[in-house]
Design a protein that fits this description.
Elements: E1 3-6, E2 9-12, E3 16-21, E4 39-44, E5 53-55, H1 58-72, H2 77-82, H3 84-100, E6 110-115, H4 147-155, E7 160-165
Parallel strand pairs: 4-6
Antiparallel strand pairs: 1-2, 3-7, 5-7
Helix pairs in contact: 1-4, 3-4
């Protein structure tokens, strides 16, 4: 795959383009809603495809990460919830929210992923967003095993995901 860095943007020569802007400045306080059960509810209902869209809210970015993890664990929520990767992420996620959540005094216990229907993996991600063959993390936009990077991706207002088609 051809890669080109132009004005600090990653580009490909594919028919669909996903761009990620990264900065380490100014992490934001959580704007995510902690439900009465103590969890942030994330509904997986978004298709990440070729439409020119910026995913820049905390919820948008959290849904993207949860979608990737759901696919990585074979579209099996129980397997995902039982994995060390998910639990490491939840630890860092709740630690960040509970450490910065001054306005909403509810303690965050974690994330509940909600499926509106059983979908196959390709129904969530365009061919450029998903790895071919065995589902692995080699083509992820962010490192799924770096929980601090995932938290930075979600709560840093200077980071967003852009999907597009060239």
């Amino acid at each position: 795959m051809k890669k080109q860095i132009r004005f600090i943007l990653f580009e490909t020569n594919s028919s669909s383009v996903h761009t990620l802007q990264i900065s380490n400045n100014n992490m934001a306080v959580s704007e995510l809603n902690i439900e009465d059960d103590g969890y942030v509810h994330v509904v997986l209902d978004q298709y990440y495809g070729k439409d020119p869209i910026d995913y820049d809210t905390q919820l948008d970015k959290l849904k993207y990460i949860c979608t990737w993890l759901y696919i990585f664990y074979g579209c099996d929520l129980e397997e995902m919830y039982d994995s060390s990767g998910w639990n490491d992420f939840i630890y860092e996620f709740t630690r960040y929210i509970n450490g910065t959540n001054y306005q909403n005094q509810k303690k965050c216990l974690g994330i509940k992923v909600i499926l509106t229907d059983k979908r196959e993996a390709w129904e969530f991600l365009d061919h450029q967003s998903q790895p071919y063959g065995v589902w692995d993390d080699s083509n992820c936009v962010v490192d799924l095993w770096n929980s601090e990077q995932l938290v930075n991706f979600i709560f840093n207002p200077y980071i967003w995901l852009h999907t597009d088609c060239d």
